[in-house]
Automatic annotation (TrEMBL):
This is Fumarylacetoacetate (FAA) hydrolase family protein. It holds the Pfam family FAA_hydro_N_2. The keyword Transferase does not apply. The lineage of its organism: Bacteria, Pseudomonadati, Pseudomonadota, Betaproteobacteria, Burkholderiales. The keyword Hydrolase applies. It comes from the Bacteria. SUPFAM superfamilies: FAH. Residues 1-78 form the Fumarylacetoacetase N-terminal domain.
Amino acid sequence: MKLATYRDGSRDGQLVVVSRDGALAHYATGIADTLQQALDDWNFIAPQLRDLALTLEQGKARHAFAFDARQCMAPLPRAVGWLAPDDDTAEPRPWRSDALWGPMRPLPAVGGSADVGPALAVLCGDVAPDADAAVALEGVRLVALACHWRRAPDGDAPHAPWGVTVAPCVVTPDALGAAWREGRLTASVTTAWNGRKLGIAEGADQTVSFGALLAAAARGRGLAAGVAVAGGVLPTPQVAGDPPAWPRGYATLAMRRAAERLTLGREVTPWLTPGDRVQIEARLPDGSAPFGAIDVVWAAPPHNDGVTAG
């Protein structure tokens, strides 16, 4: 089952069910108005959403319409929390959960420098305190594709969490088939920067499984329905050598600049700046792209010619 949230002028948007191929959608009106409402009562609401999804797939949904990712907010615009590890540890920490941006929403019109951070994430139901990894993994309700943005307002190396952009659709683990296994997703995540490929990362190479991440996040406190846990920046493969090589490119600009220091002795690639465009997409082994694409432009700051109004 695939779900998305359409803009309707409210803060939480309107929940829609999306067909497997991403061509059609149907409002979930009468079942659940928002995704948070569905997560809060998942065992009761999810079967009804599945019935609607089946009707949509069979071509029997009378009020189906063409799905348009441009109308999407983040699937869960106001997550209870967005947690992500800062490094390769299994310790997810709060990210800026007040800044979950839709898949095509321009980045805020401010200056400085920024970097991308493609990641997979899961939206969970209630997870009991101190649940082990296997039990915690059972709390996964939906899988998402996201990008963590880091920014430095002074143009130096981006380091501060800025916000999170989320792809238009979230998908139940069963709909991912064999690609979802033991808390990891086998998917190739491609990041493009201004129309050029930055790199292809592999979801199966995620450092820590989602079961372990959820267990760590739930330690001593549990997790409430609507919490999102991200898996951290996805790695790209490195081939040992002198110098080493990265045949599939880089997940972030920081990784690319670090590679340039090793191979060229200096950094050549700039950071993201206003006006740049970033596109991220995840494809499963069967070639499908279940989450849709992230496609954002960093808006340029308003022009200031030095003239003060008034």
